[in-house]
Design a protein that fits this description.
Layout: E1 2-6, H1 13-20, E2 28-42, E3 48-66, H2 68-79, E4 83-92, E5 97-105, E6 112-115, H3 118-138, H4 145-166, H5 176-179, E7 180-190, E8 194-202, E9 213-219, E10 222-230, E11 235-242, H6 244-248, E12 255-258, E13 260-263, H7 270-282, E14 288-296, E15 305-312, E16 321-322, E17 331-337, H8 338-346, H9 353-370
Parallel strand pairs: 10-15
Antiparallel strand pairs: 1-3, 2-3, 2-4, 2-6, 4-5, 7-8, 8-9, 10-11, 10-13, 11-12, 11-17, 14-15, 16-17
Length: 371
């Protein structure tokens, strides 16, 4: 058995319970402090770091009676991010001292930010972190901690999308908790995207429950799509890039013309993603965004939720080649007239659904935008 002191996000008992695979109320957890230390945000990150600080004391939890299995799960969750365990003496509320191990970050990993407060973090990041931990811990024993760390930005992006979906209005004519029965759920594959599989039932229109169905879904996250439009010149900008899913489907034309698009990172709004992607993919600074809608991209296969925009821009001079090398992007841009865009839609030249949708929205609102 071992005792561990938690000073950061694992002080959040729902998260700690997910990592340990147990109910939080069954943990032997006591409030404690680590003298001579303080907890700060890791600058530019969404988690804290602990640093030496004379005269300070880092608040936390001392959790006693952890098993070797518990330590293995904790090491898997923390180990790929540059943490090491050290034994420390912590002070308890009754004035006594106790020994416990602490996950300390390796020196020099992050810059020190502002003081960190658990309640502030939990309000903004608690739900996302808990959902991300569910996916992470589903791969305990299947992937290494280092492999998880490499995929964690995508995991967190999917978690943020799940939390955002939970906040959307419920169907007023359905009680999803009554009308859908989740029998089993599994995270079956994880890389840049994830695949989840479930056995479930849903209430049919005759009032009866369906048979148990096995279904899987590609989990992507939320995306922002923006079609740049210059109302003065009446032209749009499209980008073309190689798309591996199109190639893997057997298509002999995997270079696809599209609007600018990108995945929404945790902490971003879809609007800010659209502005960022316009800069990264096409070197554009958009004057403003016009919301063209939001929808699931393929409800039968994917959980991707797409925010659609037309971006007002000056397209007098644009970069021909764009994209980020760090993301393996090789993107070229082309400016064409509105009439040429609609001809491409009508003749089925364009095969990207968000491009067709934003082009048709632009056709309906073009006069207003030009006015």
């Amino acid at each position: 058995m071992a005792d561990l002191f938690f000073y950061g996000t694992l002080r959040h008992l729902p998260l700690l319970g997910i990592v340990l695979g147990c109910r939080p109320d069954r943990l032997n957890a006591r409030a404690a402090e680590l003298p001579g230390h303080a907890v700060h945000w890791a600058k530019g990150e969404i988690f804290p770091m602990i640093v030496p600080a004379d005269g300070a004391a880092a608040p936390g939890l001392l959790v006693s009676g952890l098993t070797e299995q518990d330590i293995g799960r904790l090491s898997f969750y923390e180990g790929g991010f540059g943490y090491r365990r050290e034994v420390v003496q912590v002070s308890l509320q009754n004035g006594e001292y106790g020994a416990g191990e602490v996950f300390f970050p390796d020196p020099g990993l992050w810059e020190i930010g502002a003081p960190w407060v658990l309640e502030d973090w939990a309000a903004r990041w608690g739900a996302i972190s808990c959902r991300a931990a569910q996916e992470v811990m589903a791969y305990h024993g299947r992937l290494s901690a280092e492999e998880i760390a490499a995929r964690f930005p995508s995991i967190r992006r999917r978690a943020a999308s799940w939390v955002a979906a939970q906040a959307r209005p419920a169907d007023p004519d359905r009680d999803v908790d009554r009308d859908v029965v989740l029998r089993t759920h599994a995270f079956t594959h994880m890389n840049f995207h994830g695949i989840e599989e479930a056995d479930l039932q849903f209430r049919r229109y005759d009032g009866e429950m369906s048979p148990v169905l096995n279904r899987s879904a590609l989990m992507v996250g939320e995306a922002a799509v923006v079609l740049p439009y210059d109302p003065v010149r009446d032209v749009v900008l499209l980008v073309e890039q190689f798309r591996a899913p199109v190639y893997l489907s057997g298509d002999r034309a995997p270079w696809v013309w599209e609007p600018v698009a990108g995945l929404v990172d945790p902490g971003e709004t879809p609007d800010s993603t659209a502005l960022r992607e316009a800069e990264e993919e096409a070197g554009l600074t958009l004057a403003r965004l016009e919301k063209a809608g939001e929808a699931y991209s393929s409800t039968g296969a994917s959980g991707e939720y797409v925010h659609l925009y037309v971006g007002i821009a000056d397209l007098t001079r644009v970069a021909e080649i764009g994209g980020l090398d760090s993301e393996g992007e090789d993107i070229r841009s082309a400016v064409l007239s509105f009439d040429a865009l609609m001809e491409g839609v009508d003749t089925h030249r364009y095969r990207d659904m968000p491009l067709i949708v934003t082009a048709l929205w632009l056709a309906r609102h073009r006069d207003r935008l030009r006015g």
